[in-house]
Amino acid sequence: MPTGYVLGVNIGFHDSSAALLRDGALCALIEQERLSRRKHAVGQPPAQAVAACLAHEGIGPQDLDAVAIGWDFRALPLGRNKRFSPEGLRAMLFPDAEGLEMPPVRWIPHHVAHAASAYYSAGVPDAAVLVIDGAGESQATSIGSALDGEISILREWPVTQSLGFFYNAAAEWAGLGYWGTGKLMGLAAYGRPGPGMPLRAEQGGYELLHDEAAKKVGVRNSAAGPLLAYYPMVAEAVKPAFARVFPFAEREGEEPIAYADFAASVQQALEEAVLELAAELRRRVDSPVLTLSGGVAMNCTMVGRLVRSGLYDSIYVPPVPTDAGVSLGAALVVAREGERFEPTLIDHAYWGQDVTPASTDAAVAEAGLFAKRLELPELAAFVAGRIAAGDVVAWARGRGEIGQRALGTRSILADPRDRRNLERLNVIKGREMWRPVAPSILAEHAGTLIEGPLMDPSRFMLAAAPVRREAWTSVPAVTHVDGSARPQTVHRATNPAYWALIERFRQATGVPAVVNTSFNLAGEPIVNSAADAVSTFLRGKELDLLVLGESVVVRSEGDLP
C-alpha cells in the first residue's frame, strides 16, 4: 500500500543531499556535507543524509514509494556504470540494508529537478522558470514556463555556453579557486568594470565567446563527453580572453585586490547576460513571477539587480538553489504523480536536524564547559545585551538551515554598529579581510536600513540591496564598500527565537539588525550538531559566548548569567 513517502537524492559529483517528502510536503532536507564534515561533499554519496531523513520520520527504506534522483544519467556513458544499477544504488544510498529490494527509481533531468525545486516551493500557480548552473546532462542554462503545475522547458543553452563555468573559471583566474565564486563576487565591489569579457548579452539571451582553438576542442567533446570534462573545456576556452584584459595573467603572488577591476568586469558581464535571459522570458511567458534556481542563483549581487529591474512583480529563489536542491526538486516531480500532492510553501530554511536538550547536555559535559538553560525572553535579553556590549556570539538553536546561508539557527552574531566587527569576524573564521558580512534585519523594519524593493530572496539572504545612505554610519559592519548589503529579513512567524533576539537588540540600541555570518571556520561546512557547535566554539577562541539550543554555554562558570 502506498505510503506517500518519496525520497529525493542528489548523487552528482558535489553537494550530495537527500530530501524526504510525504504527499509532496517536505519532512526534511539534509546535505551530506553537514554530516560528513567535508565541504561540498565532493565525491561522496548521500548515505548519511538519507539515513538522517528516514530517521527523522522513523521509517526505513522499505517504506518508500520511490527514490527520485536529480540527474538522468541514462543517456550518458556515465549511466552504464555499475554504481547506478539497482544494486549499486542500494549500496550507495542504503549501505546498511543489505538484501533490500530497491524501491522504484526515477531519474529526473537535472534542470527539471532544479526548476521543480523552485516552482513547487513558491506557492504560485504560474511562473516563468530560469535555471542557470555549471552543467546538467548536456545543458547549462534553461528557460521555461510553469503553468498549472506543468513545467515546460522552452530553450536550452549547451554546456559550452555555461555561465556557471565562466564564473568559476574567472574565480580561478583571480587566484580564488574553483569554489571561490562567492569571493569573486565580493571582490567585484572594489573594482570598476571594463570591456573585454568573453560573454556578451544579446537579444533573446547571451553568447559565451570562445577562443577559436579551444572552441574546436569544445565542439568535439561536448556532445557525449563525460561531465567531468566539461569544466576544463569551457575554462580553457575563455582563458585567452581573460589574458587580453587586465591583469593579463592568472594571479599567483599578487594581493587579490589587484584583480578587483577584473572581478567587476566579470560580474557586470554575468548580470547583463542574466538580465537579458529574464527579459526574454518575460516576453515569452505571460507571468509576473520568476522562479530562479541553479548554482548561479547564489550570486546575490545578480539576484539583487534582477529584483530592482522591475521585470517581475515577484522573484522566488529557494534557500538551496545549488545542486543540493535537486534532491528536493526530483522528489517533488515524482510526488506530483501520487494520489495527493500538497507541496510545502518554503518560506523558511529550517529543514535540517535539530539541536536537542540531550545532545546539548552531552556535548557541553564532554567538553568541560558550563551551561545554563534560560527561557526565551530571558535568553534573548541576555544575548542581545552581550552583543550590544561588544561580544561575538555563536548561535545554534533549532533545526539547521538548508543551503549555503546561515539564517539564524547556525550563525555567528555581532553588533553591526561597530565596523571593527567585520575584521574580528573575518579573523575568527580565517577569511580574507575584504570579504563582507551580512545583516539579519527584522522584516517589519527593513525599510529603515534598506532602500528599494525586497522580495522573497531576502528571506534567504540571496539578494544584495542598497543600504540607505543615512544608515551607513548606523550599520557600518554590514555595509559593503559599494554601499550595498546582503540582507536577511527575519520574520517572527518563521523564527520566533531569532526575531526575539533582534527585537531586544533593537529595543536596547535602536538598530533593528545584527551581524550574521555562518557558524563555521574556514574550509568547513556550517555546523550541524551540538557536538559540531561546541568543537567550533572551542577552536574559535575569540568567540565570547555560545547559545546551544535553550542554553547559554561559556568557558568560565563566572560568565554564566
From TrEMBL:
UniProt cross-references to Gene3D superfamilies, sorted A to Z: 3.30.420.40, Carbamoyltransferase, C-terminal domain
Carbamoyltransferase domain: residues covered: 6-69, 100-332
InterPro entries according to UniProt: ATPase_NBD (IPR043129), Carbam_trans_C (IPR031730), Carbam_trans_C_sf (IPR038152), Carbtransf_dom (IPR003696), NodU/CmcH_Carbamoyltrnsfr (IPR051338)
Annotated Carbamoyltransferase C-terminal domain residues: 385-554
Database matches in Pfam families: Carbam_trans_C, Carbam_trans_N
Family (UniProt): Belongs to the NodU/CmcH family.
Protein name, entry field: Carbamoyltransferase
Organism: Nonomuraea purpurea
